[in-house]
Amino acid sequence: MKYVIGLIIAIIVSGSAFAEPTYLKVVAQDGSGDYLTIQEAVNSVLVYQEQRSVIKVKPGIYREKLVIPAAWCNISLIGDDPVNTIISYDDNANKNNMGTFSSYTVLVHGDGIRLENLTIENASQMQGQAVALHLEGTESVIINCRLLGNQDTVFTGNKYGRFYFYNTYIEGTTDFIFGPATCWFEHCVINSKADSYITAASTPASHPFGYIFNECKLTVSIR
């Protein structure tokens, strides 16, 4: 229990997760912001910064395969609301033999990344393993988001990673939350789209906890 409490404190109230922003940039597809694409806005952030940069994402469907590299830290991507602010792509493991771990819509290598009020979607429609959100940093916070896909929707890939999901909807068919990281899911809705396994945690034997679901709701929408 002490480990779990320490995990929550480290992620939720740490300076890296909620430090005061150094600047605010706006992404808008209609040209009213600073950038037209989210990737352009991420690329504009200073590398290895200690202060937080906030990128506001205006409503729209952003067809991007978004990458936040390891040197890009302490970034908040905040949409207006998750229903109307959508990042979507449709790669899957069988497309050009790319494999599961290259099929992501959003790949996060940076530390201290906060995603809020967004939908992240892999729209490949049952054509193989297809990741929507791939987390590889050591610390990320996902708040009030929708993570949509089928098989392998969310990959928490860093065995040293500590990720916090709050008030987030996650859907999929088989093993749609998987990986070795330690993750706390708080007040989330976990929706199964098939009669199959929800998680495939690969927690190292030396770690006392893998996936912790607290006050979450399990739902079913089998077609």
Give an overview in words:
The structure is a single chain. The protein is mainly β. 9% of the residues lie in helices and 39% in strands. The protein is built from 3 helices and 21 strands. The protein has helices spanning 2-12, 15-18, 38-43; strands at 21-27, 52-57, 60-62, 66-68, 75-79, 85-89, 106-108, 113-116, 119-122, 133-135, 139-143, 146-148, 154-156, 162-166, 169-172, 177-179, 182-186, 189-192, 199-201, 211-214, 217-220. Strands 1-2-5-8-11-14-17-20 form an 8-stranded parallel beta sheet. Helix 3 (38-43) links the parallel strand 1 and strand 2. The longest helix has 11 residues, at 2-12. The protein starts with a helix and ends with a strand.
Helix share, percent: under 10%
Cross-sheet strand order for the largest sheet: 1-2-5-8-11-14-17-20
User: Based on DSSP secondary structure assignment, what is the total number of beta strands?
Assistant: 21
- What is the residue-mean pLDDT, rounded to a whole number? 90
Task: Please identify the structural class as seen in this structure.
Answer: mainly beta
Strand composition percent: 35-45%
* Rough outline: globular
Radius of gyration: 16 Å
Count of alpha and pi helical runs? 3
Helix/strand order: HHEHEEEEEEEEEEEEEEEEEEEE
Distance between the termini: 39 Å
Largest sheet: 8 strands, parallel
Instruction: Catalogue the unreliable spans.
Output: 12-18
